[in-house]
Amino acid sequence: MHTRGNRWLLMPLAAFFVLFVVAPLGLVLGVSLYTDASMGSMGAVQYVKFLGDPFNRQILLETLAQALGAVVLSMAFGYPIAYLYTLLTRGWQRILLFAILLPMLTSSVVRTFAWVVILGREGLINQLALGAGWVEQPLKLLYTQGAVLVAVSQIEMPMMILPLISSLGAIDSRLLDASKALGAGRWRTFIRVILPLSVPGLLAGALLVFAAAASAFVTQTLVGGGRLMFMPFYIYQQAIQSQDYPFAASIAMILLATVLVVVVAINTLGRRSRGFVHG
Amino acid sequence: MADAPTPRAARRGAIRLGQRLDRLTFGAALAIGAVVGVSLLVLPSVIVVMTSFTSGYSLKFPPPGYSARWYQALFLDSPEIIDAFILSLKLAASATVISTLFSTAGALALARNPARWARLLDAALMSPLMLPSLALGLGILMLFNLAGQGLSFTTLLIGHIAICSPYILRTASASYAQLDPVLLDCSFSLGASRWHTFVRVELPAILPGIATGAFISFMVSLDNVAMSLFLSDARSEVLPIRLWHIIEDSLDVRAAAASGALIAATLILLLVMEKVAGISRHMK
Amino acid sequence: MKMQRRNILKALGAAGAAGLATGIPGLSLAQEKTLAATTFPGAWEESHRAILLPAFRKATGVQANLVASLAVDTVAKINASRAAPPFDVVLLDEGPYLATRSEGIYEKMPFDKIPNLKDLPEKFIDPTGQGAFVSAQIYGIAYNTERIKTAPTSWNDMLKPEFKGRIGLVSMGSTLGSAWMAELARINGGSEENMEPAFEFIKKVLPNVGAVAANPGVLATLFQQGQIDFSVHYINNIEALRAKGVPVALARPDSNWGLVRSTMHIVKNTKSPDLAAAYINEALSLEVQQKMSEAPYFVAPTNKNAKFTGALAAIAKDMSELEAFRQTDWIKLNPRRAEYIDRFNREVKV
Q1: Which CATH superfamily is domain C34-136+260-320 in?
Q2: Nearest-5° Cα angle at A265, A259 to A271
Q3: Half-sphere exposure of A263 (CA within 13 A, CB side)
Q4: Beta-sheet strands, E only, within chain A
Q5: Is B41's CB within 8 Å of A245's CB?
Q6: CA–CA separation, C89 and A270 (whole Å)
Q7: Does B158 contact A20 at a Cβ distance shorter than 8 Å?
Q8: For chain C, domain boundaries
Q9: Structural domain range at position A230
Q10: Residues 58-97 of C with CB under 8 A from B
Q11: Angle (CA) B142 B133 B277, round 5°
Q12: Whole-model pTM above 0.90?
C-alpha cells in the first residue's frame, strides 16, 4: 500500500537526522582526532592520552561498573514489580503503570534530589538508623560509590520494568497451565518456564538501563560529589570548563563506543535467546 | 490399623505439604519482592513531597513541622525559577510540535514498509534513544561553533528535537503498524480518494500513538539536562538546570517545593492524557 | 466519546502550534531589554538577588538576568563566544581578571555613566579602565559550633585525627580554593610559584576529608547538611548560614584572615553597554555597598563612604585594616592555575 509519494514524507525527518545527528557525531569523531586544543594537527593522541593514564582508565571503569551494577539491581528489584503487574486486574494494573510512569516522566534532577534527602546526614536513613539505635553517629552515605549505584538503579528502574511487563504479558498462559498440569510447582514453573521466556524483556531492559546509567550525568554529580568522577561529567568539564574540545570529544567517543559495544552484545544475546522463546 | 496413614497416603500428604510450602515460599518471595520494589519506586517521590512541606530551613526528614511556606516562596518570591519554568515550557512545546510533524510523517513512510532500507533507516532514526545524549549535545555544539553560530533558543531547540523525535517515531510507528490493512482496502473499494482515506481512516487510527509520543516527548524535553547544558545560551536557564543549581549551591528548600510542584503537574498531565488518549495502552 | 477525544487532541495541537508561533519571536524581543549578569554561586547570588537586583530595577526599570558562575568558567564562556558574548556584565575575582586583562574581552568603563566611581579609592579602579573592584572578601576557619566546641586556631588543626571525615575542601576552580591553597603553600614554606607544600598538605589531610565542594555555594550546603564540620570559608557564606539557623562560625587562623577581592567588568561586544554601566554603578553605590556590608552578608565594601558594622567590624574597623590580611599574588599564580586545578582534582579523587 505504498505509493511513491510516501518517500517524500521521510524527507524532513531524514534531513534533520543527517544534519543534526549524523553530522554532529561525525564531528565528534573528527575533532577527537586532533592532537591538541588548538586543533593544529591530527593523530590518535587523545585516545592514547586517555587510555594511557590510569586516572582516566579508572574513570571509565568506574562508570561502566556502576552502569552494570545498575542493570543488576534494577533487574533484581524490577522483576517482582513486573511479575506483580501480570497478576493484577486491569484497574490495579493501570494504577501500577502510573506509579511506574510517573518517575520516568519526572526530571532526573527531581528524582536525584529525593536521594539527596534520603541519604543526607539528617535524611531518612540516618534518622531511622539513629532512632533505632543501630548506629551512634550518622553514617556517611552521600558522596560514595554505593550511593550513586543505588540512586541510579532506582532512577532507571522503570526502563527495566516496562519491557519486562511486555515480555511477561506476551507469555502464552497455556504454557503456564501446561506446566501446572504436568505437576511443576510455582518455583519450578518460574525458573523453567517464565524466566527463560522473559529473557527478551530482560535484555531489552538491560540495554536501556545500561545506556541510561552510563550517561546519568545529574545523579552521578549530585549524589557522587566532588571526589567521584564519571565519564559524563568528565566530558562536560573538559569541553566547557577547560575548553579542550579534542580531549572532550575523545572521551565522548570512548563512552559512545563502550555503550555501543554493550548494546550490540546484548542485542546478539537477544537474537540467540529467541531460540528458546519460539523454539 | 486405620490410625496410621498408609505409605501411599503419607506420600500424598507429603506432596501436598510440599506443594503448599512451594506456594507459600513463592508467594512470600513475590510479596516481599513486590513490596520492596514498589516502595523503592514510589517512596522517593513521596519523601520529596513531604520534605517540601517542611517548616524548617533544612532537608531534615521527617520534617520538624509542616507548612506551605516554601510553596509560597516558590510562587511569589522566585521570579528566576518562574522564568526558567516558562522557558522550559516554550522549549518543550516547540520541540514537541516540530518533532511530531517530522516523526509522524516519518512513521507513515516507514512503519509498514518491509523493505530492508526502511528497516535499517527506522533503527537508525531511533538510535538517539540509546546513545548518550551528552555525546550528541557536544557534537551539535561543535557543529554550531564550526558554523560560527552562537548559542540561542534555536540551537537548544534543535538539540531537543533530536532527542524527542525518536519517541514519537516509535509510538506512531507502533500505532500505524497495528492498523488493519483491511480497513484501507475497504475504504478504497468504497471509492474514497487517497487523501480522504488518510484523513478519515489512517490518521484517527494513529492519533493515540501520536498523542502518546507527543506527551512523552514534551516531558522528555521539559526534564532534559544534558542537551540543555551544552546547547543553551548562558543567558537563560531551563528549569532542570536552575533547580540543579539551587540544589547544589544553596540547598534551598524551594527546590523541594519546585520538585513537588513538578511531580504534581506530571501526575495531573498523566491522568489527563490517559483520559483523553488512553495512553497506557501505548506506553508499553 | 471518540469525537470528543479527537477534538481535544486537535485543540491541543493547535495550541502547541500557536505557542511555537508566538513563543520564539517573543523571547528574542525580551532579551533586548534585559541584562545578563553573572555572580558567584552561594551567598553571593543570594545577596545580589536580595540587594543589587532590586536596586538596579529601581534605577533602570529592568529586571537583570542573573547567572551563577565561577570566575574561571565565566571567562571561559566569554572566550568561547567573543563576538556574541553570553553575558553583558560579569563579576570576577582578581585572578581571572588579571590574567585576561590584556585579552581585549572587556570594554573600557564609561566614567560618565558610572558616577559612583568617584567614591572609590584610586587603587580600586583598574588602570586600563576595564573594571572596578566591588568588594573585598574575608576568609577564615569555618567550623560547626555544635560539633566542635573549641574553635580551631590553625589550618594545621585539620590534620588532627579527631576530625576524621569532617573536613571539607573546595576545588581550586573557585577563587576561595586557589587563594587558600596559595596560603597553605606560603605558611608551609612555599609560594604561589611553588605549590608543592600545599599539595603535600592536601595529601596529609585526605584521610580526614568528608567531602570536596566544586564551589563555595556547595561548601556552604555541606555545612548545612552536616556533611562537614571544618573548612575554609568566606564570611558572607558563613553569616548567611547562621542567619538560617545553622550552627557555624568563622574563626581567625593564627596565620591571619585571608583577603580576596572581586571585580566587575562590562563585556566587550555586549548589546546593552548602558545597562551594564548602570549595573556596575548600582553595585558601587553607597546604598548597595552598605547593605552588602551588613548582616547577614558582611561583604567588605570598596566605596570609601561605607561603614564597617557588626561581624565585619569585629574583624576589621575599616579598609586600611584589611590591607594587613593575607592576600594572594594572582599574577604569580595565574600562569599555572589551570595545571593546579587539574592536579588538585586528581589528588582528591577517591
Answers
A1: Periplasmic binding protein-like II (3.40.190.10)
A2: 135
A3: 18
A4: none
A5: no
A6: 56
A7: yes
A8: 34-136+260-320, 137-259+330-348
A9: 50-278
A10: 63, 65-69, 77, 80-81, 83-84, 86-87
A11: 130
A12: no
CB contact under 8 A, C23 and B93: yes
- Nearest residue to B167 via CA among B30, B282, B22: B282
Total domains in chain A come to 1
Residue A216: inside a domain = yes
Distance (Å, rounded) from C-alpha C269 to C-alpha C288?
27
pLDDT of residue C288: 93
Q: Which CATH superfamily is domain C137-259+330-348 in?
A: Periplasmic binding protein-like II (3.40.190.10)
Dihedrals phi, psi of C131, to nearest 5 degrees: 180, 170
Q: Where are the alpha helices (DSSP H) in chain C?
A: 2-32, 43-47, 53-60, 71-80, 94-100, 175-187, 196-205, 216-224, 235-243, 273-284, 286-293, 310-315, 319-322, 330-333, 337-348
The span from the CA of B91 to the CA of B96, in Å, is: 8
* Low pLDDT (below 50) residues in chain A: 1-4, 279
* Dihedral of alpha carbons B200, B201, B202, B206, sign: positive
Within 8 A by CB and 6+ apart from B121, the residues are: A10, A14, B110
Residue of B197 and C249 predicted with greater confidence: C249
- Give the residues of chain C that fall short of pLDDT 70: 1-32
CA distance C334 to chain A (A): 15
Provide the CATH number for the domain around residue A142.
1.10.3720.10
Q: Is A30 a member of any domain?
A: no
Flag if A6 and B109 touch (Cβ within 8 Å).
yes
- Could you tell me whether strands C65-68 and C209-213 are parallel, antiparallel, or unpaired per DSSP bridges? unpaired
Per-residue pLDDT reduced to its tens digit, B92-117: 999 999 999 999 999 988 887 888 88
ipTM of this predicted structure: 0.88
* Cβ-contact C330, C311 below 8 angstroms: no
Query: Closest Cα of chain C to B56: distance in Å?
Result: 9
C19 close to B (CB below 8 A): yes
CB contact under 8 A, A227 and C210: no
Residue C334 CB partners (closer than 8 Å, separation 6+): C95, C96, C98, C99
